[in-house]
Amino acid sequence: ADNVEFSLLNPKLTFKNARIDIAGNQLIAAEEVSFDIDISELFKGNFKFNNIYLDSAHLNLIRDRDKKWNISINNGCNDKTDIAGSNSNLSFSNITINNCSINIAINEKADSSVIKLQNLNIKSPLLKSGVACPLEFNTNISISFGKEVRLKEAFFESEMSVILNNSFVPTSVTSQLKINNIYGKLYNYDLTKLKVSLKSEVSLNNST
Q: Disulfide engineering: 158 pairs with which of 56, 66, 120, 177, CB 3.0-4.6 Å?
């Protein structure tokens, strides 16, 4: 980061122009990352981070033809794994992610597959394990899976409720998803100006 600020009076950390590289390649960069720390809760073994703000971040995920990602992702998390310790509590409140983007490149086939999320915005008043956490997001997405599937642009917005286990892995998701302003094609079907509204509830098994 170009600049790191810490305020002791109102414990807060701010990182300006933060960047994380893996093997010499940029994984994530953000113009600003900031959060408040509840010092009094730390002495009780509780980790509480408030007013989390992430602005203009860019995340770049790449999977090569050997199915290896440029970041180590642990898919073996389950309820027995507690990232904060069995006697600790971890919670995040007042989360705002503003104007971010995510590029996901999958080179499993000869034609590379690319998923891009632009102008990603996420808000949540609380993320805490074991309770239903409300979550709102909206983003513009484009998808390319070879020549047959090319979604040039679509606007997604959703109101969600997520229940997390002790490792903050979702175990169930209830969502109402709206998709509009769609331009592209799915095989030979023209998706232009198609409007979709979905309401679903999904239970996830994270034991595998």
A: 177
User: In whole angstroms, what is the distance from residue 143 CA to residue 157 CA?
Assistant: 16
Secondary structure of 147-180 as H, E, C letters: CCEEEEEEEEEEEEEEEECCCCCEEEEEEEEEEE
pLDDT digits (tens, 9 = 90+) for 182-202: 888 888 888 886 778 777 777
Question: Per residue in 119-139, pLDDT tens?
Answer: 999 999 998 888 899 999 999
Residue type, 13: L
Query: Do 146 and 113 contact (CB within 8 A), yes or no?
Result: yes
Instruction: State the Cα–Cα distance between residues 190 and 208, nearest whole angstrom.
Output: 37
* 78, 165 contact by CB (below 8 A): yes
Euclidean distance between CA atoms 22 and 122, whole angstroms: 25
Element housing 136 (H / E): strand 132-145
Here the tokens at position 139 are 């983003």
Helix, strand, coil shares of the chain, percent, nearest 5, are 0, 65, 30
